[in-house]
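Feature request disguised as a bug report, sorry. It would help if multi-protein outputs had a clear separator. Right now it looks like this:
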Amino acid sequence: MTGLDSLKNNLIDRILATRNEKLLTAISNIFESTQSEGIISLSSEQIEMLLMSDKDIESGNLVSESDLNNSDSEWLN
C-alpha cells in the first residue's frame, strides 16, 4: 500500500468514526471547493492557440529553452 492509499484509508476511517457534524460539513465544503477548481473553461481563442501549438510540435517547429534564453539575453542587451 502506498503512502497515498494509507492516508486515504486513515481519513476514511476517521470520517466514518466521527459524530462531529461541523467537522463533516467542513470536510464536505473542502471537497466541493476543490472539485470546482479543477474545471477550467477555455475561450475559443485559447483552444485555437493550443491547436496551433500542437501543429507546431508535430511539424517540428520548436525552439529549445537554451536558444530562447540566448535570444532573450540578446534582446535585453
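(second protein starts here, but nothing in the output says so)
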Amino acid sequence: MVVVHEGWPYGGVGAEIADRVQRLAFDALDAPILRVATLDVPMPYSATLEQACIPQASRVVEAVRRVVARGHA
C-alpha cells in the first residue's frame, strides 16, 4: 500500500492513515506501507523548488514499484 499526500511526512493526515491501516490490518498487508509526501524541508518560496518538494509522479511510481517488489519476494 502506498499513501500519497501533499503534507508533512510525519504527523500529517497521510501519516495517520498509514499508521491506522498498519495497526488495524497488519496481518492483511503483504508489505509495509510506504508514504510519498512533501519532502521534510521548509517549504521554499520559489515555485520551481516548491514543485520539487511536493509529491511527483516519479516518486509515486518508485514507491509503488518498491511495494510490488516486496510483495512478490
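Even a blank line would do. Unrelated, but nice: Residues 2-71 form a domain with the Rossmann fold fold (CATH 3.40.50.920).
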